[in-house]
Amino acid sequence: MPRATIDASWPRIPDDAVFGQVSAVEADSHGHIFVLHRAGREWEEPFPAEPIAEPTVFMFSPSGVLLGQWGAGEFVMPHGLSVDAGDNVWITDVAREQVVQFDHEGNQRMVLGERGVSGQDESHFGRPADIAFIGNRVLVADGYVNTRVAEFDRSGAFLSEFGNFRLAHGIAVDEDRIYVADRENGRIQVFDHAGKLLDSRDTPTGGRPYGVATLGGGWLVTVEGRDRADNFGAIVRVYTPEGQLERSLDVALDGRNASLGHDIAIGRDGMAYVTDVYGDRVVRFELSPEQEPE
Questions:
Q1: Could you tell me how far CA 14 lies from the centroid of its own chain?
Q2: Mean pLDDT of the region 59-78
Q3: Cβ within 8 Å of residue 138, ≥6 positions away
Q4: Which of 51, 54, 140, 281 could cross-link with 39 by S-S, CB 3.0 to 4.6 Å?
Q5: What phi and psi, each to the nearest 5 degrees, are found at residue 41?
Q6: What pLDDT digit, counting tens, does each position of 253-272 carry?
């Protein structure tokens, strides 16, 4: 498979920063790149009770300079990060069973869910994974235990739920559709903005889609973190509006199970960003079709 040309100079992590198990990435309206990581904490169950002491949210400039960091003492097992149209930052924590809204500088504004309590109802989550937005609606991919997308208004009031997934791991929207990475079913589920199922698209080789991002006009890009045999990696796929595979790129490190592609985002400059949990990194590359096999 063609390998993406990774920008080896991006980002620039200070020597004294604790960085690792990078789970989510998103761009804001200014072109800043927000990266969520676990600061060296590994996914082990049962989850610990104490929050991660170091900052878990890094904000980079488009050129890769670290502009800010926050989130110290906040999260136990942070998972998903999304930025809304007002540049508020929303983060899921699968151990806390909560979705937390912050302003751009990291000041907490709202919390959805009851801390540490699981449930599939109007006020509880089952390891919520990711967030997306349609106007004033907040869509939560919920998640590792639950089987739905839960919908709230911006005040936190529950509106509805839809779908039936085997791990709704990633969610993204465009001008017409909602896309959910139905990870353990090896497919992308496509809905209209009212939550009506329009299409169910199996991945071309049975890979597990972890993250999903939209390119506009119905174009879609995903990252697969596992193949059908449960080998780990990081395969990026680009799909046409009709759901046809347009191209694939390998962004994994060399070596068996060295990488776990977990989330993908597209910057304002059109560059793609993928988080690699096992590789303790976030990578930046062009989605150009001119990549050649190595």
A1: 24
A2: 97
A3: 84, 90, 99, 112, 131, 151, 152, 153, 154
A4: 54
A5: -75, 135
A6: 999 999 999 999 999 999 99
Q: Name residue, tokens 């559709």.
A: 177
**Do 252 and 261 touch, CB atoms closer than 8 A?**
yes
* Cα 191 off chain centre by: 18
* Cβ proximity of 95 and 76 under 8 Å: yes
pTM metric for this prediction? 0.97
Hunting for tokens 């806390």 — which residue is that?
96
b (16+ CB within 10 A) / e for 181-198: bbbebbbbbbbeeeeeee
Q: What is the mean pLDDT of the chain?
A: 96
Q: Would the pLDDT of 294 be above 60?
A: no
3-state secondary structure of 14: coil
Rounded distance between C-alpha atoms, residue 11 and residue 57, angstroms = 14
Kindly state the tokens that stand for 61: 């400039």
Looking up tokens 């709202």 gives 110
Return the bridge partners of 130, or none. 141
Contact 261, 249 (CB under 8 A): no
DSSP 222: E
Tell the residue number behind the tokens 């911006």, with chain if given.
Answer: 154
Check if the beta carbon of residue 208 is closer than 8 Å to that of residue 186: yes
In degrees and rounded to multiples of 5, residue 139 shows phi and psi of -110, 125
